[in-house]
Amino acid sequence: MLCINGVRQRRLFTPEGCFSPRYDHLSEPESAKDVPAQIPQPAVGRLSLYFRELYRLREAEITTTNSKELGKLVNVSPPVVRRDLSALGTIGQRGVGYSVDALIDRIGQVLGSGQQWEVVLVGVGSLGDALLRYRGFSRLGFKLTAAFDIDPGRIGSTIGGVEVLDAKELERVLTATPPHLAILAVPADNAAEVASLLVRLGVSGILNFAPTTLRLPPRIAVVNVDLASELQRLAFAVQSGT
Amino acid sequence: MLCINGVRQRRLFTPEGCFSPRYDHLSEPESAKDVPAQIPQPAVGRLSLYFRELYRLREAEITTTNSKELGKLVNVSPPVVRRDLSALGTIGQRGVGYSVDALIDRIGQVLGSGQQWEVVLVGVGSLGDALLRYRGFSRLGFKLTAAFDIDPGRIGSTIGGVEVLDAKELERVLTATPPHLAILAVPADNAAEVASLLVRLGVSGILNFAPTTLRLPPRIAVVNVDLASELQRLAFAVQSGT
């Protein structure tokens, strides 16, 4: 059972089950008979963090690192770092540490950042605009190839190097050049309809910023980012701590 | 141990420990001797979702709901919904269900949305701009009271009803009117410095969009949203499923 932000995908799961500080759909642990992915779910997020920091080290022309340094950069203890990296088959050298390049390659491969992912964006409001301009995506191999909106004021403009197309063109464009992933930044009321269309056109994963729960076939991966809920979680943490 | 996106806050914890699909800092369970918060960490995120959907029901002038309907709206099973709501002390009525208003009040109270939270934003790039315009915050009781940037092109403009001030004014303004929370949307390289300043000026919680790990005192709550990492998690999910 893969839980991405609590949306259960009936494809794979870990012996640890699937826990989330946000959503806990599974109250009972799953059996381990069907575990294609060797990486425990909690480690996936940490890999993302290591990758981010390793990239930064490389840009600073640093060629080797160790579990202590990496751990400090991502706020994870060195034993956990070492365990995560050895699960990838990466073997550091005693006294030397890890090769930054080798780690970037290996983690990138595992996370899928080794390949080029084509991503479309639907919804070019201020948030969609920001996502088109966001420079963090391309370094991880994510290429925003098209953007769609219904607003005539947006259609035809170029933002972050991507031309905004009329939403009416969605079917034609996606049929011609099917993307891997889609980012949904439309209002909540339109999200379900757009998501269904994207799935019908072959998209296998959706990053959803619309503040609504998408109900899609289990084979579709969904990651939800609800900005107001994030702030609410923060408020709860602050309130609970006082 | 409160884990918000894996940043461990040494203040409170649940007997379940703290699990995250992203970061798992705790490999060993904590003892239960110190649990001021009665709500298990995984339930907090679900409460956010219920709240969001209940608000929508209220806007549609629907006055009662039940665990089946709520569960469907947020993709959670009815028994879990009932368990979450009874943990709040909310008692539904057999055959009738729950009062939407009563639930909104009670959950809002628990999540801190009953009160008005004053929030400042630092960093008004395209993402900060989008956050200022985001309309989901105010309905949950979050009021963006000030925004700061260093760009003369931004300073003095009004976005989403909030005036953008010179970042040099941060200390003066925050000392005069201390906010509860801050949203950080500055480049990664500036994040640590700005975060330290905010903490020094009395901010207790930071919603961090900068793609870097903030190292702050344990009493400061931090929720991290790293947009590229979210897309990376999605890619991993899609890749693992095929």
TrEMBL record, chains A, B:
Pfam families: CoA_binding (PF02629), Put_DNA-bind_N (PF06971)
Subunit text: Homodimer.
Compartment(s): Cytoplasm
Entry keyword annotation includes NADP: no
Originating species: Novipirellula galeiformis
UniProt keyword terms in alphabetical order: Cytoplasm, DNA-binding, NAD, Repressor, Transcription, Transcription regulation
Source organism, top-level taxon: Bacteria
Function noted in UniProt: Modulates transcription in response to changes in cellular NADH/NAD(+) redox state.
Molecular function in Gene Ontology: DNA binding; DNA-binding transcription factor activity
Domain CoA-binding: residue ranges: 112-213
GO terms (BP aspect): negative regulation of DNA-templated transcription; response to redox state
Residue ranges of DNA binding: 49-88
Keyword Phosphoprotein: no
Record-stated family: Belongs to the transcriptional regulatory Rex family.
Binding site for NAD(+): G123, V124, G125, S126, L127, G128
SMART domains recorded: CoA_binding
InterPro entries attached to this UniProt entry: CoA-bd, NAD(P)-bd_dom_sf, Rex_DNA-bd_C_dom, Tscrpt_rep_Rex, WH-like_DNA-bd_sf, WH_DNA-bd_sf
One GO cellular component, as annotated: cytoplasm
Name of the protein in question: Redox-sensing transcriptional repressor Rex
